TrEMBL record:
<dbReference type="GO" id="GO:0031416">
    <property type="term" value="C:NatB complex"/>
</dbReference>
<dbReference type="InterPro" id="IPR011990">
    <property type="entry name" value="TPR-like_helical_dom_sf"/>
</dbReference>
<dbReference type="Pfam" id="PF09797">
    <property type="entry name" value="NatB_MDM20"/>
</dbReference>
<comment type="similarity">
    <text>Belongs to the MDM20/NAA25 family.</text>
</comment>
<protein>
    <recommendedName>
        <fullName>N-alpha-acetyltransferase 25, NatB auxiliary subunit</fullName>
    </recommendedName>
</protein>
<dbReference type="InterPro" id="IPR019183">
    <property type="entry name" value="NAA25_NatB_aux_su"/>
</dbReference>
């Protein structure tokens, strides 16, 4: 716990409260409650003890009792610091920051001169983002306690009002000018005291595009405050000069900066940009002044191509001498600027391009200098298009000829040192980037893959002393071999290459356990093989932390439910949502810290970050999938009704709370390494397609969830229940209208998706996973779910009519028939054996599992909807029985709907049995199959040592797949069993 009272609490009270604090600190919350009760028996007026009890109750899950206690204390308007601190902690953990505002507002009325109360109130307003009131509170604080930080808190609050305003004109014409005047007042009164205050001034001028004024600030007395960053004033001034297009001054500034730090790539780019700006404008210097000093002459701008090239050459030579004298690495930035200049001139089709020199010589000289560094390929990659296609082969060959590699007994040349390994890998990457490997035949690709595997194994001898966390020097040989096998696999469609890749990567991880590239590729390949079982360990091995839950979570979240691992899905979703729920609180705390320490320029960054996380598509997807998973696996089991779940989820089906236009795609789609030619890489267009398909699938899932909620609320309108539900409290459309609207929206959306030309677009393996849309449409899952919703609406209409329409009952019967017919067709199509015979060979059918999982899910939701129909029809049946007993002339004829529903339930029961059989057909254990002994991958443990090692790794792969499929089958059967048990209770 924070401050336990200190000098604000007398020693006796401190001693009484200490046992409660200690138990809270140690996590003994029940004991803390007991200790608090013990204190309160003797000292009922001790409000702090009551709050500590509320905190302990909150942490053991008794939220309502805890909140009730806090409200009792709030009524007393506490002012003692321990009670206020404890209440603040309580409200923060309850995620009720507005209560903290009320707490300190009340406390300030009792003690308006208390500086800490003012500060706590301001920080409470930061938590809720009330920038206008922040400004007012900061203004009041400065009046009472005239300190600069409080004044600039008000300035920053004004800036935030501008940044969050939906009216751009209002921001530029009112808020930002007001903030500028507030700072200028302090400047005129010479009351600026810190670097943070100058930074906030520069920030405002930047937002107002007053770059000239910002330069004056940097050149004036205020510029002397900027001391934390080295060369802060020259760097900022150079940036502003570039923004203003003052190329001559900008060029001089960046020349001076490059002289100090020639390896800074940003400086190199800006230097070239400014120099080319001068050249294009035919700029020439004004007449020289005889009084100019020699120092100023050296900083003259470079305004011709010769001057630019001379500066680059001179700087490179100077740095080369320094590197040789000090025995340190040669800076790369200044040398890469030649390539950047060449690229720009080529884009502009400039005649000066010939002055730079032969292109191939530039690349060769750079390779000679840096080819033995892992960064060499990444440096050159963006500039490789400068080499003409006809020169690709000879360039690669010339680099290979320069390697003095050792010829092995098998006729393959092997690297003799670690540096040679890096040079050889760089050449191979360039070759693949050029597309030279694409031109190889299938047999040549397989031969090259085998050769690369041998290189990988040979390189292990150089990494024997490496730590467990280090990567092996030859890992990329193996990765490139797998990429080649991927090419062959995609071209032939033969899964034997998939199994071989899995074996290779598993074998590679035994030597390089920390190679994240292998793990990411293994995750993707296992998922494509239909096995999610090995993924949790691989994913945990990546050590995903914090924001990576958002940027990298997509690599597994899309597969975990589609492959039927519901337990793993629940754990993964909980971990992911924990990050998202805590992020808002954590980011707010970072903003508060920024206020306290004066790092105001970070606050807009935190605000942007918070907004991106809040609108993350991954966050929305995981939330929806988590709720659907709970309904599928837990609803109508052990007394937990669907209605209880929907009410606890607080779903409002009539509202679409997703801001579709503000959705952020935070996925890191470049995390998987690829050296493929540019036309085969994951492009910007592919990114747009992927995001659009993810949005389409998300909309399907959201409409499903809202439809299930709306259908559940239909039973609230029956005569025996009230209408006070989250969707129908006297305002807005009725439940049936909401469900009808959602059904229509889902129908229309599925039609649009089916007609989307990008639906079947094939994305690179190193790109994001595909959505489940194709399988969803292929399995008729959407059509079946829509039919179940339409039947739901018809049954509800029938239950609310005084006279039961025969036509409506006939329509319901037909809808029931259509549901069972389409489900039967889908199950028949998806029921196939895990191992199939084709062309005399045994093949593993890895495509059936995702289809079966969707069918199980769809049938599960149909059964849940059948339970809602049962609750609507049950009162009708009871009414018919009562009517029959009252009628003297004999029994009332039974309504056909009751028999239709009974037949429907029987048919759904049969569908469940059939689907259970289909699920059992994918369980290797149930089929008594040992996948490792079926020779599906064509490797033998009786081969040579290298092949035997790979065969053993592949055998491990099959064992893991066998276990994964068994686990999937078990989880699917558990869901079906629970839903069948519920079906058996639906008797009219």
């Amino acid at each position: 716990m924070a401050n336990r009272g200190g000098h604000h609490v007398d020693a006796v009270t401190e001693r009484r409260l200490k046992p409660i604090y200690d138990n809270l600190d140690n996590g003994n919350y029940k004991t803390a409650v007991q200790m608090a009760d013990k204190v309160l028996k003797k000292h009922k007026e001790l409000q702090c003890a009551k709050v500590l009890k509320a905190l302990a109750l909150l942490r053991i899950g008794k939220r309502r009792e805890s909140f009730s206690l806090t409200q009792d204390v709030m009524v007393t308007k506490p002012v003692d610091e321990p009670t206020l601190q404890a209440l603040t902690i309580c409200f923060r953990e309850m995620q009720k920051p507005e209560q903290i505002i009320e707490l300190y507002t009340t406390a300030l009325k009792s003690n308006p001169k208390n500086e800490e109360f003012h500060t706590h109130l301001f920080m409470a307003l930061v938590r809720v983002g009330d920038y206008k009131r922040q400004q007012q509170v900061a203004k009041e604080m400065y009046k009472v306690f005239p300190k600069n930080p409080y004044y600039f808190w008000g300035v920053m609050s004004t800036i935030l009002q501008a940044l969050t305003s939906t009216d751009e004109k209002l921001a530029q014409m009112m808020y930002l000018p007001l903030a500028e005047k507030m700072v200028e007042r302090m400047v005129k009164e010479k009351r600026i005291e810190a670097e943070a205050e100058v930074n906030i001034y520069l920030m405002i001028l930047g937002y107002l595009n007053k770059h000239e004024k910002a330069i004056e600030v940097l050149d004036g007395e205020l510029g002397k405050f900027l001391k934390v960053e080295v060369d802060a004033c020259p760097i900022r001034k150079a940036e502003l000069l570039c923004k203003m297009g003052r190329w001559a001054e900008a060029n001089s500034a960046y020349k001076a900066l490059l002289t100090k730090r020639p390896d800074n790539w940003l400086y190199c780019q800006q230097y070239l940009k400014s120099a080319l700006g001068l050249i294009e404008n035919n700029w020439s210097p004004p007449a020289a002044d005889e009084n100019d000093g020699e120092n100023e002459k050296t900083c003259q701008p470079d305004y011709t191509m010769d001057m630019v090239l001379d500066f680059i050459q001179e700087t490179a030579e100077v740095e080369e001498k320094k590197a040789a004298a000090a025995s340190h690495a040669h800076p790369r930035g200044i040398l890469l600027s030649r390539f950047e200049l060449l690229r720009i001139l080529k884009e502009k089709e400039s005649p000066d391009i010939g002055k730079i020199g032969p292109v191939l010589e530039l690349f060769r000289s750079y390779f000679e200098l840096f080819g033995d560094r892992p960064c060499c390929y990444d440096d050159l990659c963006q500039f490789l298009p400068l080499i003409a296609p006809e020169d690709h082969q000879c360039f690669v060959q010339s680099l290979l000829d320069g390697l003095d590699m050792e010829l092995g007994e098998d006729g393959i040349k092997y690297a003799k040192s670690i540096k040679q390994i890096y040079r050889h890998l760089c050449i191979l990457k360039i070759s693949r980037r050029f597309g030279l490997q694409d031109k190889l035949s299938q047999d040549e690709k397989l031969a090259l893959a085998d050769e690369l595997i041998k290189h990988s194994e040979a390189a292990l001898s150089y990494g024997k002393e490496l730590l467990f966390t280090d990567l092996q020097y030859g890992d990329e040989y193996l990765l490139m071999a797998v990429h080649l096998l991927t090419d062959v696999w995609e071209a032939t469609g033969e899964d034997k290459y998939l199994w071989r890749m899995l074996g290779l990567l598993e074998n590679g991880l035994t030597s390089s356990a920390s190679c994240h590239h292998m793990k990411l590729l293994l995750i993707r390949l296992y998922c494509l093989a239909g096995a999610f079982g090995p993924i949790p360990d691989l994913y945990d091995g990546l050590d995903i932390k914090h924001v990576q839950q958002d940027t990298l979570g997509y690599t597994v979240s899309g597969y975990v439910t589609s492959l039927g691992h519901f337990t793993s899905a629940n754990a993964l979703f909980n971990t992911t949502l924990k990050f998202f729920t805590s992020n808002n609180k954590d980011t707010t705390e970072y903003m508060i810290t920024a206020y306290k320490f004066g790092t105001f320029h970070k606050i807009p960054e935190f605000l942007t970050f918070q907004r991106r996380i809040r609108n993350s598509i991954h966050c929305i997807q995981v939330t929806v999938e988590k709720l659907l998973l709970e309904l599928l696996t837990e609803a109508e089991i052990a007394g937990n009704t669907l209605q209880d779940f929907i009410l606890d989820m607080d779903i409002h089906p009539e509202k679409d709370n997703t801001k579709w236009d503000e959705i952020c795609d935070n996925r890191d789609l470049d995390v998987m390494v690829s050296w493929a030619p540019e036309h085969r890489l994951f492009s910007a267009e592919d990114r747009k397609v992927s995001l659009q398909l993810e949005k389409s699938w998300l909309k399907v899932r959201q409409l499903m969830l809202r439809s299930l909620a709306a259908a559940t609320y239909l039973t609230q309108n029956s005569p025996s229940t009230t209408t006070n539900t989250p969707t129908n409290n006297g305002d807005g459309p009725s439940h049936e209208k909401v469900l009808a609207m959602l059904t229509e929206q889902l129908d229309r959306h599925l039609t649009e998706v089916a007609e989307d030309p990008t639906l079947h677009k094939k994305l690179p393996l190193q790109g994001p996973p595909c959505t489940r849309l194709v399988n969803y449409l292929k399995g008729n899952c959407g059509k079946v779910f829509l039919l179940a919703l339409k039947a739901m609406l018809s049954v509800h209409e029938l239950s609310t009519q005084q006279d039961q329409s025969a036509d409506l009952q006939s329509t319901i019967e037909q809808t029931f028939t259509n549901i069972t017919d389409k489900c039967t067709e889908s199950i028949r199509r998806s029921r196939r054996c895990l191992i199939k015979e084709e062309g005399g060979a045994r093949l593993f059918d890895r495509h059936t599992l995702p289809e079966l999982v969707l069918l199980v899910e769809t049938l599960g939701f149909i059964i849940l909807l059948a339970g809602v129909k049962h609750r609507l029809l049950k009162p009708m049946k009871l009414a018919a029985i009562r009517k029959s007993r009252k009628k003297k002339g004999g029994a009332t004829p039974k309504l056909p709907i009751f028999q239709h529903f009974k037949d429907y339930i029987d048919n759904v029961q049969q569908l469940s049995d059939g689907l259970s059989m289909a699920v059992q057909d994918i369980d290797p254990t149930m089929l008594s199959l040992d996948l490792g002994k079926l020779n599906l991958s064509e490797n033998s443990v009786e081969a040579n040592d290298e092949e035997a090692s790979l065969a053993r790794a592949e055998n491990t792969v099959w064992k893991r797949m066998e276990k994964s499929y068994h686990e999937t089958s078990k989880e699917l059967l558990d869901v079906l069993k629970n839903k069948k048990d519920f079906l058996a209770t639906l008797k009219l």
